[in-house]
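Q: My collaborator sent me two sequences in one message, no labels, and asked for predicted structures for both. Can we handle them in order? The first one she listed is below.
A: Yes, handling them in the order given. First sequence, followed by its C-alpha cells:
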Amino acid sequence: MSKSNSVKIGVIGGGQLARMMIVPAINLGFDLKVLAEQEGSSAGLAATTVGNYQQLKVVEAFAKTVDVLTFDHEHVPLEILRRLEAKGVNIQPSSSALAFAQNKLHMRRRLAELNLPMPDWSSVKSADEIDAFLAEHSGEAILKTPIGGYDGKGVRAVTSSADASDWLAALAGFGGELLIEEKVDFVREVAQLSARTPSGEFRTWPLVQTTQSNGVCAEVLAPAPGATNEMLELAVAIAAHIAEGLGVTGVLAVEMFQTIDGRLLINELAMRPHNSGHFTIEGSVTSQFEQHLRAVLDLPLGDTSMTASNAIMVNLLGVDDQNSFVENYSKAMAAHPNIKIHTYAKAPRAGRKMGHITAIGENSAEIAASVWQAFGILVNG
C-alpha cells in the first residue's frame, strides 16, 4: 500500500494514548493524523493539526483529511460529533456510545437498564438528598461530578452534605445533578479490557489488577493474581454486555471493584485505550493500540494472548517540575535490562503521567521486584 492511498486515521487529542498509536499505525501502513490541543503535545510526531476540539469548524476541517475519526479522550462535545455524523463522517466510537462515557449518570442509568452489577447509586440535586443517601448508607458515600472528572478529579468521599457545598453551588455546571454512590468495601480493583468492531467482532485481554495512588493508576498486574475461572468469565460477560448494549466500538476498559464476597461491581468505563492496558505493548500478541486501530477500521481483530505468563506495568508519575526521569534512564537500563521504558514527552509536574515501565516474565515476584527497583532508580537516581 503506497503512502498516497493508505488509510487515514484521525485521532482527536494529542496525549500519550495518541502517541502510542503511532508505532502500530506505521507498522500497519496506516496514515495516523492527530488533532492536538497545543504545540509540543505528547503525540506531536503525528500532530497534523493544532486547534480547539471544542470548535466545530476545527474538528470538521480535520475530519475532511481522514477516513475515520477516533479519540485520545472522551471530551469532544457530542453536538459537534452528531453534526459530523449527520454529514456522513465515520466516527468510532459513535456519539451515541460516547454519551455514556461523558456523563456518569447517563452511564449508570443505562447499565441499570442492562441489569449490570454496580454499587448502589442515586442522582442528587440538594443537600437534603445527599444527607438522605448518607443516612441509608452508614454515613459514608462517594460523590462524583457526572461530567468532566478523570484520574481522581471530580470524585470525593463525603460524610455530610456540607462536604459538597461547593459542588451544590455550582450544580448548573454539572448538568444540574450529582452522582452519589455507596462506599464499596472492596478487596481490590480490577479492569477488563476488550475491543469490538462495528461489525460485532469482540475480543478480550486477561483481567488485570490495578492499584491507584491519589486516584491515579500506579500499578497494573496481568493477569489479575488469584482470579477464579468464575470471576474471569463474569468479567468477560460484563464487558461484552456493555460493549454491545452501549454500542461501543474500539477499545473499552471496564474498571470494577472486587468485593469481599467475590462480586464484581462496575466503577468506571473508558471508550479508548486505557492505562490498565499499557502492559499489552510488550505483554500481548496484539497491543491495545494496534487493536484499537484495527477495530475502528472494522478489520479482523488480533490475538490477545499474553506473550509471557505475567506482566507488570508501573506508571511514572511526576514528582516535581524538574525530574523528567530521562537523566536516570541509563542507570535503570544497566541495572535492569529486562524492563521497557516508555516516555510521554511531557514537561515534568507533580502527579502527572510522565511515562510507564513494563516487565514480562514467568515469575511474577521477580519481574515486580525488577520494575519497582528500576522505578526507584528513575525517581531517585
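Q: And the one she listed second?
A: Here it is, processed independently of the first:
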Amino acid sequence: MSAVRETLMAVAERCEREEPSQTLDFDILDALTPPATPWKYKPYTTSLDAAVTLVPAGWSFFLGLSENGRHAQVTLGRSHPTNRTVIQEGRSLPLALCAAALRAKAAQ
C-alpha cells in the first residue's frame, strides 16, 4: 500500500473514533494537500457542506441513519468504470462522510 493510501486510511479511522476537532480537520487537509501547496482550511468534521467537498468526482452519496438509529450512516457509490460502494457509520454525518470519502480516495 502506498504512503498516501496509508495516510488516507489512518485519517479515515480517526474520523471513526475521534470527536470533531480542528486538529482532525487539519490532518484531513494535510493528507489531501500536496507538499508546498497552500492550505485552505475547511471545518470538515463539523460541517456537512465542507465534508461533501471531500467526495471524489464521479461518486454519489446517500446520508441517513443506521438500522438501529444510533449512528449516522453514509453510503458512497460509484458505478463507472468500476462498481464500488463504501458504507460508513459514524458519530455524526460530517464525520461519517469524511471517513467514507477518505476511504474512497484511498481506493482510487
